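Hey, can you fold this?
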Amino acid sequence: MYKQNLKNELPGSTHDSSEKINFEDMHLKVGQKMHLALSNTNSGKPSNPYATSMIGYVQNSTLMVTMPLSAQLIGEPFVEEDQVHVRLVNGQNAYKFSVYIDKIIKIPFKYLHLSFPKNIQGQSIRKSRRIKCDYQTTIAENSISANIVDLSIYGAGINSILPLGTLNSVVTLSFTILVHDREIPIFIKAIIKSTKQSYKNDQKLIFSGVEFTEIKPDQELTLRHLIYQEIVEHPERAI
């Protein structure tokens, strides 16, 4: 089976082990969230991703997706025959492929006809996968302010000026994340597993590695959604 053969690395990692797969292997359904990035930009780099949804497809002919919301668009960035890079997550697998804009439909509503994907790459997302981030957090026990600089479902890396606590002590983190444009507060206990000191601009900085404990199912699901979202929208942040 395909899922058993997927490798454990992610797009953007130093060990790219993605596999070419067939369209049907993705098991996509109407409403599947995707992100489009234009390959033709003034900078020569792909554009920031535009959120869209699949509305249907005709095998070996076309892939139809909604026009991204007008709030995301400046002018009319989509032009027929332009190439776009597509990324999506379905289940615990991340996929990417490149297609062309075959037709832009404006009536009775706006949507895009994309060329049918042929060269699709897919990879399994490890539960322990981390992302680079910058979330302000507060340690409830001593009101210390800190910054979460990397995050996974099971733990985080935190920079602070003051010590969060002693090694192996339990602290409570309070921070807010953004998942699908919705702010979600997180209150979670964590064990301090490691600490390391460094200096930045002549100021001492303490990096602490923490492991989440007593994590609730809804918190794990929320963090999983955040990490998958970041992998799709900003693959360069994957660690």
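Oh, and this one too while you're at it.
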Amino acid sequence: MTQFKAIVAREVDRRSKGTLEELTLADLPNRDVLVQIDYSSLNYKDALAVSGRGRICREMPMVCGIDLAGTIVESDNPDWQAGDRVVVNGFGMSETVWGGYSQYQRVASEWLVRLPEAFSFQQAMAIGTAGYTSMLCVHALQDHGLEPGDGQVCVTGASGGVGSVALLLLAKLGYHAVAVSGRPSMEGYLRELGAINVIDRAELDRDPRPLDKELYSAGIDCVGSKTLATLLSQTRYEGIVAACGLAGGADLPATVMPFILRGVSLRGIDSVMAEQKRRQRAWDDLARLVDPAHLADVFEVRPMSQIPALATELLDGKLRGRIVVAVNA
């Protein structure tokens, strides 16, 4: 019987703790497509699940990992064949269903997206949920009517996975992005990604005013809490902020002033259960906009065995960009 490695979270002292274990195909859930996984990625939610510093795993044992890219080995769905290259993001992986930190996984065929030919498996996971979420955020700004010449776009949490790819996408499309980071050492990196300016996190992470000086036509926020509230207060008339994260907290200490006096829109971005049409649009545009050669600037590859240590580093703010997980290394 085929044996393989996976990061499995089990309950320890009433918290989840992910460690490297050996599984067999018989251990996997009963779903209609078996995928041999090449790469996954490390995201904020993954770090919380593996470390136990957040209540992510609703069921245990749980194979962690909200992303995967690999090749179909078996399929009960005629629309998908052995040998098809696929990517899966979200759909409750690492929360209620087993995920991508495994050399094999069974998934539901309706979760699958065909991997664009432009990307290798490694490059797809350099993009991963973070890049796919970034594309959803950019689409929200575009669908609102934002044009490249309309003014500056503020990207909070810019040195993280979502922020890094958002800067690449905005620069490629001709937008002027301002990066917000709490690490001064990241300025050169963020400017290389396309930021026209880099400001310190403390400028937004403060007690917000009901209305502040209008600085930005739009924003992509990965932080939440005071940072998002301040960004809203600094968004121009009829501007928009796409909110996709809560690294700084789940609260929002804001007022209604930006909404009723400036017509600002707050657009929530959920990448986990997004409909298939939006997913396909996102991946198609990523294939069109992202130069695979440029992805080398935003990721590094680490073996799956290092995930428990990397999870702590990510939560402690010691990592930059994207971590691609080699599940077979």
